[in-house]
């Protein structure tokens, strides 16, 4: 029995080292504590949400306290997530509407503030947050950056600092500590850090903060939100200053939500465009003005092809998030167009790439587009997993997986759970199976309509359907509060991302210092993954089940041998750096911060010596007071 602490509660998990299926359930799911299952109600979920949007707009536009309260009430009764309920388009979520009369920072709008920052649905830093700071940080490139020690000392725009505090961020994570100075000093950036370590804020905070002081000068004119009438007010072209590209729709809307928070009380207006969403509604949002545009590649290119609606000529920053997935997914042409195929003035643009893992193809993309003096920051071994996760591997027969799954769900206390499968068909089958067994589940994959996808994620976030079945790609980057269990119903085979994909998947739990549990079903078909899987388990001090013991590297004695001596198959980037010649001849030359002694590689030599974030005295802990 392991006592398992989640953010708010302690849950007892009878886990650890199960190498056979748990015993058969004797109770119904509801007797076991799962909420009742809910079917997908197309009529209800497709209802217009005009009322709620109108109230929010009224509250937002007029700062009318009564309307604000009414809107907040509506949001609450609707059981909404971020101000949206089932049936709403994520791209229509309320943003701060700027009026020309405002000074440097706009007034507070309580209803919107509550919606953006007050939600129980946001992931809160967990009890292991401090451990994130102990992870080794490697910085490579021409410049040695001094990490910022606290948000207060980071030189953030006052509006950004206030938003960071409203979001409840006390201390920057290592990736944030290094990315802030990189952006402030105007470097291009490649950054990799573990799943759930705050990479989104690592680019949003410094970029938006830097633009806040100059927004009035740089941003395109936009209509007055108080008098704007769709179809009547002459529309303006969207001319974003920041473009953030990511591989899936769910992630795009999630980044949009973060951007809505960080743009609060400022002139910067975020918008999101993604495939499957209604073009007209996305166009309606764009024509109100757009300074920060988040999008998936296909839909972005559709709009780039309509220069009367969207132009990239004002662009100052391009961020590629989940860069490894972006380069793997056949988006070459789209990425080429987004990076420099539109009307953007490439000389004015800073490029940033973020991911938890960085394969060679992603590095090649970086080499093509990033300035030679770009900074490279890597937190921990590329692709290594968190130590705050328990990883269980259960041996099973392919034919037994369904009953194993049911037993597993019924043998643990109910908790928000994501089940990963390798194909859309399996996704549907598993969904049917566990739904018909009375469990409250929902599912998502790329053949679902966008409406279904958004509702499915929202139902999961809200806890209405606390079990989500997903294919790997559709759940890339998802950041959902209180996911305490990830189940790999299918392990990702090496052809489909292998161990990197495994890490991305299990990273949906145990985020930002929370604890989590990952259980994977292992069958004979997963033998190809066994070596890498065992090393990953050893690296994070997980017990090795008997059936995998033969894959323990020779000479390694679990519990005795130091895991840091494990030899991992070099990731592409490490391999490249083994024979790194880039440093020679001064490509990685001297720095304005502190001269680099010699060419830096990804991690091997003095130049790339790890810096422990907590080596820096003065990293502040959260006082909390005075916010
Ligand atoms: N400094 C911080 N303090 C507290 N919470 C933070 C901080 N930075 C980010 N967070 C929160 O941590 C969560 C995880 O962040 P995020 O989704 O950016 O992780 P990520 O590194 O991009 O993960 P992935 O690789 O899985 O996409 C988010 O809910 C975010 O709001």
Automatic annotation (TrEMBL):
- EC number(s) for this protein? 3.6.4.13
Q: Does the keyword Transport apply?
A: no
Segments forming domain Helicase ATP-binding = 180-376
Give residue spans, biased composition: Acidic residues: 571-581
Q: Where is this region: Disordered?
A: 571-627
Alphabetical list of SUPFAM superfamilies matching this protein: P-loop containing nucleoside triphosphate hydrolases
| Cross-referenced SMART domains | DEXDc, HELICc
Do you know which PROSITE patterns this protein is assigned to? DEAD_ATP_HELICASE, HELICASE_ATP_BIND_1, HELICASE_CTER, Q_MOTIF
Q: Identify the InterPro entries for this entry.
A: DEAD/DEAH_box_helicase_dom (IPR011545), Helicase_ATP-bd (IPR014001), Helicase_C-like (IPR001650), P-loop_NTPase (IPR027417), RNA-helicase_DEAD-box_CS (IPR000629), RNA_helicase_DEAD_Q_motif (IPR014014)
In this chain the DEAD-box RNA helicase Q domain maps to 149-177
> This chain belongs to which protein, by name?
RNA helicase
Q: Which terms does the record give in the GO molecular function aspect?
A: ATP binding; hydrolase activity; nucleic acid binding; RNA helicase activity
Which family is it part of? Belongs to the DEAD box helicase family.
Give residue ranges for domain Helicase C-terminal.
Answer: 404-552
UniProt keyword list: ATP-binding, Helicase, Hydrolase, Nucleotide-binding
